[in-house]
Amino acid sequence: MLSEIMQSALNEQIKVEAESSQIYLAMASWAEVKGFEGIATFMFKQSDEERQHMLKLVKYVNQRGGHAVISALEEPRLDYTSFKTLFTQLYRHEVRVSECINILVDISLSEKDYATHNFLQWYVSEQIEEEATARVILDKIDLIGDDKGGLYLFDNDMKNFSATGHNIVQ
Ligand code: OFO
């Protein structure tokens, strides 16, 4: 059984993951309209993954005798001036999500909820991957600079780039 404190903290995280999914969906739509097919594919995939992160939490809360709450979401407020800005926002967002996960881990320990602590380790690892992915992409963008050919190749490579496999051309 989850404590009240643990349940409400997990419910907060359900919202964070759902908002992450919305943010990446908005980014995907922007990239698609702009003709960045690879970036759009990557962002759609990211959006789906965040929804899976949310569902995993929903199932867990309900399985532990709690009630997963599905709440209203903030509209994503993004700066669409360039895809570099977009990826910088993605990186900052993932850093914020990692902070949220760390707070959850702290709560699980103070509540002596070792099952939840164990469950959260998956998210801890996932965040290491996602922050690393965002950093790798930002480094690539810096390398490309204003080179149009490089940008074309970058967009193409993004189709096959995922948080769990850094298979972009080096
Ligand atoms: Fe990338 O946020 Fe989920 O965990």
UniProtKB/TrEMBL annotation:
InterPro entries: Ferritin (IPR001519), Ferritin-like (IPR012347), Ferritin-like_diiron (IPR009040), Ferritin-like_SF (IPR009078), Ferritin_DPS_dom (IPR008331), Ferritin_prok (IPR041719)
EC number assigned by the record: 1.16.3.2
One GO CC annotation: cytoplasm
Binding site for Fe cation: 17, 50, 53, 94, 127
UniProt keyword Lyase present: no
Function statement: Iron-storage protein.
Protein name: Ferritin
Source organism of this protein record: Flavobacterium cyanobacteriorum
